[in-house]
């Protein structure tokens, strides 16, 4: 076996082990998260999902996505979501600055007019940066539920970058621990100083789908029929488009109930 094949095989084995650890140790926390999400969706609210940088990939997978339930609402701030620009507009320097600034997260939430009954899923490997903790603190201050998908193993070893002095796992109502180590990358190659093969994104995306599916099951158990996104690249394209258009209309109904004409606080 070549070195390249060996590294690939070891990487997949490591991701598989980590997924199994999550399955063995976080199933009750995922179920608890699903109950919170089902409460929001069944009550006509939204489950917002957010992450900066690579954490945003998992948030984006919540909706719209084949097999996903209507009621999840990703928040995407382009300036701290895109990672490929590096230089120029929305470059790495701006990203590094913005996601560590207190107040930015609360400004984002004001633009979405959060209301009673909503909940929030935050995807953050480190769980220490200001934007993430701004949002968690704002939801908690309003008496709303916060779900964290984070690495306690990483977060517990580094200080908070927010004035609250806490890490995300210390603020959230439910914590789904990825257990990914500080390095994140898992493969060490002889002669190379730094590891390769990050795992946190793959695990966070898998968790996002598990929350989505578990929320759907929770809704069904309550007698609430969830509105599911259907794959349009199939032999029932017309039917799928009709279903998905109904899903988008339902999302619009939930959004238009929000008072976007309300004054924006200046704090």
Tell me what you see in this structure.
It is a single chain. The protein is of the alpha/beta class and 267 residues long. The protein has a single domain, classed as 3-Layer(aba) Sandwich (Rossmann fold), CATH 3.40.50. It is 45% helix and 10% strand. It contains 9 helices and 7 strands, in the order ααβαβααβαβαβββαα. The chain has helices at residues 3-25, 27-42, 55-60, 92-98, 104-112, 130-141, 152-155, 200-221, 237-256, and strands at 47-50, 72-74, 119-123, 145-150, 174-177, 185-187, 196-198. The strands form 2 sheets. Strands 2-1-3-4-5 form a 5-stranded parallel β-sheet, sandwiched between helices. Strands 6-7 form a two-stranded antiparallel sheet. Helix 2 crosses helix 8 (200-221) and helix 5 (104-112) packs across helix 6 (130-141). The longest helix has 23 residues, at 3-25. It starts with a helix and ends in an 11-residue tail after the last helix. Pfam families: SIS_2. One of its GO terms (biological process) is carbohydrate derivative metabolic process. Residues 37-224 form the SIS domain.
H/E element string? HHEHEHHEHEHEEEHH
- State the strand order across the main sheet: 2-1-3-4-5
Helix/strand structural class: alpha/beta
Major sheet description: 5 strands, parallel
Q: CATH homologous superfamily?
A: Glucose-6-phosphate isomerase like protein, domain 1
Low-confidence stretches: none
Helix content: 40-55%
CATH topology: Rossmann fold
Strands, total number: 7
| Quaternary structure type | single chain
Total number of helices:
9
What's the alpha carbon Rg, rounded to whole Å? 19 Å
CATH class: Alpha Beta
N-to-C span: 60 Å
Please give the domain count.
Answer: 1
Organism: Nocardioides soli
Protein name: Putative phosphosugar-binding protein
GO molecular function: carbohydrate derivative binding
């Amino acid at each position: 076996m070549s070195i390249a094949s060996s590294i690939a095989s070891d990487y997949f084995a490591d991701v598989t082990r980590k997924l199994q650890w999550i399955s063995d140790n976080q199933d009750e926390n995922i179920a608890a998260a699903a109950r919170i999400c089902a409460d929001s969706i069944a009550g006509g609210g939204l489950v917002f999902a957010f992450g900066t940088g690579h954490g945003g990939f998992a948030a984006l997978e919540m909706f719209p996505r084949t097999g996903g339930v209507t009621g999840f609402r990703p928040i995407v701030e382009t300036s701290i979501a895109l990672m490929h620009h590096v230089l120029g507009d929305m470059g790495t320097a701006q990203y590094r600055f913005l996601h560590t600034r207190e107040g930015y997260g609360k400004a984002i939430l004001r633009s979405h007019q959060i209301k009673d009954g909503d909940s929030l899923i935050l995807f953050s490997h480190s769980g220490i940066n200001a934007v993430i903790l701004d949002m968690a603190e704002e939801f908690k201050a309003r008496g709303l539920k916060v779900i964290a998908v984070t690495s306690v193993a990483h977060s517990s070893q580094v200080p908070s970058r927010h004035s609250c002095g806490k890490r995300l796992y210390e603020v959230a109502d439910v914590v789904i621990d990825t257990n990914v180590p500080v390095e994140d990358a898992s493969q060490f190659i002889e002669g190379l100083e730094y590891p390769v093969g990050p795992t946190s994104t793959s695990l966070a995306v898998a968790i996002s789908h598990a929350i989505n599916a578990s929320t759907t099951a929770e809704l069904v158990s309550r007698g609430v029929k969830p509105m599911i996104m259907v794959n349009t690249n199939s032999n029932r394209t017309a039917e799928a488009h009709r279903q998905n258009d109904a899903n988008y209309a339902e999302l619009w109904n939930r959004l238009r109930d929000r008072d976007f004409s309300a004054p924006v606080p200046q704090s």
